[in-house]
Design a protein that fits this description.
This protein is α+β, with helices and mostly antiparallel strands and 122 residues long. It is built from 1 helix and 3 strands, in the order αβββ.
Length: 122
């Protein structure tokens, strides 16, 4: 005997909602793991880095395709991916990488300032 129409709909709804929940939790888990794994740039020799806490450039945020003001390593504030960018070039466009719906828009923040022209005095 075939199941009644409401029973079929209930079964289809249950299957659909189960799949949807798995997709949502899978995306959330993936984004949480990406954030926890990618928490900082790595280095070997701390003597080649100089701690400069009061530079105003640390707190500035840049959008995709903005012109890069300082050469360095930049981190996306949403997903924590890192890029290297040269002064005068443009930051990667919006389609460089995508965020899930839970993360903020793509924004770049400098984490390592590189002195590519040798003008910074230590």
């Amino acid at each position: 005997m075939w199941p009644s129409r409401p029973a079929k709909l209930k079964k289809i709804f249950f299957m659909f909602s189960t799949i949807l929940i798995n997709i949502i939790f899978g995306c959330i888990l993936n984004e949480i793991l990406n954030i926890r794994v990618r928490n900082m740039a790595l280095y070997k020799d701390s003597s080649i880095l100089k701690y400069v806490p009061n530079w105003e450039g640390w707190d500035k945020i840049y959008k995709p395709s903005d012109i890069v003001p300082h050469s360095g390593i930049y981190k996306c504030t949403g997903c924590k991916k890192e890029i290297t960018s040269n002064k005068g070039d443009r930051f990667p466009p919006q389609n460089h990488h995508q965020h899930g719906s839970l993360l903020s828009s793509i924004q770049w923040k400098i984490i390592i300032y590189t002195d590519t022209d040798g003008s910074y005095s230590y």
